[in-house]
Design brief:
157 residues, 75% helix, mainly alpha
Length: 157
């Protein structure tokens, strides 16, 4: 007796293999995409966290950028020693100003977050205030921010 109902034809072995291969391909693609997205999010978060915790590092990204610009200008414009020194001094002034701007932005951003949380907290009942504080500490701590208390720069200029 035929175990298959009428009109239902069994899949050939070649077709079964194709479906398995297609399924494997979809799984591998999905895993690769998931790992790629996860790694990208981890990298972005680590970079933001580094910028928040170390905004005033002595040999930070601003200094490396200025050094690259200086080397590029020296090479492309064929600068002599005095001209290189002048470019170096002007770039040092720009780096100092950028660092000051970054410090102000960092402090103001932290104050803004703290102020917003305080305003929200005032509008909530006491039991929900504690939950909000805990949630803010958990969420903001991952990014290098603190929800309450004074925020001191990680490193001073």
């Amino acid at each position: 007796m035929n175990p298959n109902p009428p009109g239902d034809t069994p899949l050939s072995p070649a077709l079964k293999i194709r479906w398995k291969a297609l399924l494997l391909l979809v799984v591998v693609f999905g895993l690769g995409a998931g790992i790629g997205v996860g790694a990208t999010l981890y990298y972005v978060r680590s970079q933001v966290r580094y910028a928040m915790l170390h905004p005033f590092a002595d040999r930070g990204r601003l200094d490396r950028l200025a050094a690259r610009v200086e080397a590029n200008l020296s090479r492309s414009l064929d600068l002599d020693a005095a001209e290189r020194q002048a470019v170096h001094e002007e770039l040092a002034v720009s780096v100092k100003q950028a660092r000051q701007l970054r410090r102000r932005n960092s402090v103001e951003s932290r104050m803004l977050v703290r102020d917003a949380l305080a305003r929200i907290e005032k509008r909530l009942p006491a039991d929900k205030q504690a939950k909000l504080r805990q949630k803010a500490e958990d969420r903001l701590g991952r990014w290098g921010l603190r929800a309450g208390g004074p925020d001191e720069p990680a490193e001073k200029e």
